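Methods — Computational structure assignment.
A single polypeptide chain was analysed. Its primary sequence is given first, followed by the predicted tertiary structure written as structure tokens.
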Amino acid sequence: MKPTNILLPVGALLIAMVSIQAGASFAKALFPAVGAEGTTALRLGFGALMLTLVLRPWRAKITRDNWRILAAYGIVLGLMNLCYYMALTRIPLGIAAAIEFTGPLVVAVCTSRRKVDLIWVALAAGGLLLLLPLKDSAHALDPIGILYALLAGAGWGTYVIIGKRAGNALGSSTPALGMIIGALVVLPFGIAEAGPALLSPALLPTALLVAALSSAIPFAFEMVALRGLQPQTYGTLTSMEPAIGALAGLVILHEALPFIQWLAIGLIVCASIGTTMTIKQEPVVPLPD
């Protein structure tokens, strides 16, 4: 591909990643009113509505054979987002994004048999060790927040595996159908936490903004990127998302991180890039975070 031709898909992917992390930043504005649970319900609910209008999932042929994988896909999607937003209530955005990213990294390494992957595992482990509150420190992170981020990462890793199977079975309608199920899964948590506050008209503009930034906009731009980039290039660029999350947290939320935490994010990013560049290329599954 000529350099001029690659600028469009690369730019589209960068916009998608910035949009996702900006959406997570603005989601924090909803936490005081409806909590992380209510915010997740609003985000997935409006996101499902937006994707339904675009993808028209009612055209999909849901059978007895593919229903189970679709249900698993939607459940994982819902719980993954819930754990991620719960993590954001306790730790900075960039840290949560970096820890969550270890999920697909582990999946990539486990599907490879190359000895060089031990290097990337060591880098990622080193990054995580720098983030763990192993001793009292002025920069110690909330261990519960780290746990939620790790659970979100496990969900993302599972999502990569299940999402590929669901996409093969149901095609382009999969993200919308999965988000509908995910919204239904987290709705009880949102109602239990926020109750009638979920219906407050004052929250509607922010909820729509979060849903658009986290779902509709990145989905549209990722489709452009996936059509124009090789899987390895896509994976390498996506590895920068934790750093983008840290920058979004700094600019939008004023979450300044100490050097040791920037170093930890850098190690995880390097591990992700290294894994992507050395692993056998496979088809890429779009990830509506």
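Note: Residues 143-170 form the longest helix (28 residues).
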